[in-house]
Amino acid sequence: MPxxxxxxxxxxxxxxxxxxxxxxxNNLESVKAVLETCDEMDAPVILQVSQGAIQYxxxxxxxxxxxxxxENVKVPVALHLDHGTSFEQNCQCLAAGFTSLMYDxxxxxxxxxxxxTALIARVAHAAGVPVEAELGLVPRIExxxxxxxxxxxxxxxxxxxIYDCLSAEEQKKVDDWCTKPELAKDFHDRTQCDSLAVxxxxxxxxEGQGARLNLDLLQKLMDAVDIPFVLHAASGIAxxxxxxxxxxxxxxxxxxxxxxxxxxxxxxxxxxxxxxxxDFRKVFDLGMTYIAEAIREYxxxxxxxxxxxxxxxxxxxxxxxxxxxxxx
Length: 328
Ligand code: G3H
Ligand code: ZN
Hints:
Layout: H1 6-16, E1 20-24, H2 28-40, E2 45-49, H3 51-57, H4 59-71, E3 77-81, H5 87-96, E4 101-103, H6 110-126, E5 131-135, H7 148-156, H8 168-177, H9 181-191, E6 195-198, H10 215-224, E7 229-231, H11 239-248, E8 250-255, H12 257-273, H13 285-302
Helix pairs in contact: 2-4, 2-13, 3-4, 5-6, 9-10, 12-13
The protein binds glyceraldehyde-3-phosphate (G3H) and zinc ion (ZN).
Residues 83, 138, 204, 232-233, 254 line the site of zinc ion.
């Protein structure tokens, strides 16, 4: 069906008590594997375009790929900008037909994050499109200065918590970056963001599931503001914590590194088995199968299987703009 808005997807998830997977759209193989698996599981899904995907494929290709993919499946699909960098980039994505936006002002001072998020929300809302914001900072693995050995352990998730692989100084960084509950209400009141990405212990780009979440902090944040919460960097989070966060009411879970690794794992295996293969189209099938297995695992964990048809989606529905004060 045609793309639906991110707000329709997240509102249904919040009401239904499940989370929707947000998987990165990087190439045809990953988009097809994600959409076909969600279609088979009757699960709503968000395909998101990252900064890396914009550099790799370009906005036009990435957008066209997701739109075409969504039209090929029966389940609702939203097209989301992941970690948008500016007001201008959000406007470009809005014009390109994205049905969900994000501004990541996590590295900006608080007031600047509020100002830019609020401006984007004002423009996006006029077009019926929701905006995700980031409060606190979900770090990337490269944001840490640790020995090569500790970096390797951190990357592979070989620690009982990420703190095990970090010096006291680096541990303090994680604590400082965590989302502050006392700012959440002010941030939401002033920006009118539609969903909130929170920093509660995860790190982007981990390959093993060694990060533990601060679920007490998540509860405090949820008590402070009643909007859909977004969990970033889920590739590196222990699965029982992902499940606990979804049970507590997280509505969107972002997974990227795991999907990329599955495509690489399967493709390497195929090339080892058939080193003389000259048709490149025949080397991706196993990687796509591995992506499908990962999606099945996550979608089941999120509780989103079978939820595609519970929200009364209207195929081709216009974005849900509030027209209450529109002239007849
Ligand atoms: O915004 C993207 C996600 O947070 C993905 O992070 O690659 O660590 O799963 P990940
Ligand atoms: Zn992220």
